Amino acid sequence: MKKNNIYILLRFLFIFVVLQFTSCDKIAEINQEPELESLQQGLKTSVAIGYCASIVVAAANGKQLPDNVTVNQQTGLIYIKIDSNHPLPFNKNVGDIIIAYLWNNNSGIMSVLFSKIDILGGSIKLFGIYTVPVMARNNAEGIDVVYAKEDILIGNGSDTILNMGNITDFTYNSELNRLNTEKPTDAFVAVKQNFWFVNINQNNTYSNVYDDNITVNGGGQIAEAYGNSGGVIYHAMINTKVNYSSCNLNPISGTALLQNFKIGGSPLIDLGNYLLSFNNNCNGKAHVDISTGKYLNFFDKDISLNLE
User: Tell me, what's the pLDDT at 160?
Assistant: First the structure.
């Protein structure tokens, strides 16, 4: 073989190897599995708040309560025992929930203390929520709850959040006014708002909270969630419906958006996002309808939600 031909062959092999490695790198860049921590936090927190609001409305209206719920007639506090027979949806922990509330006609506010219940998972502990507004509308419209990131108490706290005696009329009415905020309909808008709207349809079965239809709209971050690519993960949910009696593994309908933004990017640099849809197959999975950037290769695939 002539020297010139050997040179051409070696050059071809070199280019082929470089292209192979380059292609592998490119494939790795778009083959990152969708990161769900932010969505898991938002969904679990919203469903837990819906669970508590359903019990508050039943107690405030003198309805029959679930057999794991008691009310202290002297303090007015609601005590909920969470165990294997009475789980908190999407949660395997055993512990207690204590709720304080103020109620007038069809609306009020509630504060919730979680004891030995790890809602968020990992090293982040959700201690409780403070003065979240609740409104019971007619049967068709159900119960509305709205909460913001600042209502969430992360880490350690005090049981003084259960003291409602210092709530002024101004504070009480201001909290209720939050229920008039317009619900988001666009996931790309909701993803950075740090606001969540929860609607609960009790199905006229007040003593059975598990057949409630809980629908969540809103998004942002409950606590900071970081992606493997060095970004911060935000989530949004639009008409995401949970019925724990029908399915204890995943939402049964609706959509969710997750976006990975580079830390310190100004303007924000989008490292990748994906849009999920939920269905009632009850297999613990969601379908990836759209994916970009780091997650491009997961387009049109099913992914496990790992909610418990």
Answer: 87
What SS3 state is found at 17?
Answer: helix
Return d(Cα 113, Cα 108) in angstroms, integer: 17
Q: Does the pLDDT of residue 208 top 60, yes or no?
A: yes
Q: Tokens 């107690």 sit at which residue?
A: 59
Sign of the Cα torsion 79, 83, 88, 91 reads positive
AA letter at 178: R
pLDDT tops 70 at residue 20: no
Does 225 score more than 90 pLDDT?
no
65 and 202 Cβ atoms separated by less than 8 Å: no
Q: Do residues 122 and 41 make contact, with C-beta atoms less than 8 angstroms apart? A: no
Statement: the pTM of the whole predicted model exceeds 0.85: yes
Peptide bond into 267 cis (omega under 30): yes
* CB under 8 A, 24+ apart: contacts of 12-15: none
What is the SS3 string spanning 123-191? Answer: CCCEEEEEEEEEEECCCCCCEEEEEEHHHEEECCCCHHHHCCCCCCHHHHHHHHHHHHCCCCCCHHHHC
Q: In this structure, are residues 136 and 165 in contact, taking their beta carbons and an 8 Å threshold?
A: no
Separation of CA 228 from chain center? 20
Question: pLDDT digits over 275-289, tens only?
Answer: 999 999 999 999 999
What's the CA gap between 271 and 260, in Å, rounded?
5
Per-residue pLDDT at 231 exceeds 50: yes
Is 99 in contact with 78 (CB distance < 8 Å)? yes
Looking at residue 238, its pLDDT comes to: 98
CA distance 184 to 195: 9
Backbone phi, psi, residue 137, to 5°? -95, -165
- pLDDT at position 308 is 78
What are the start-end ranges of the H helices in 61-177?
169-177
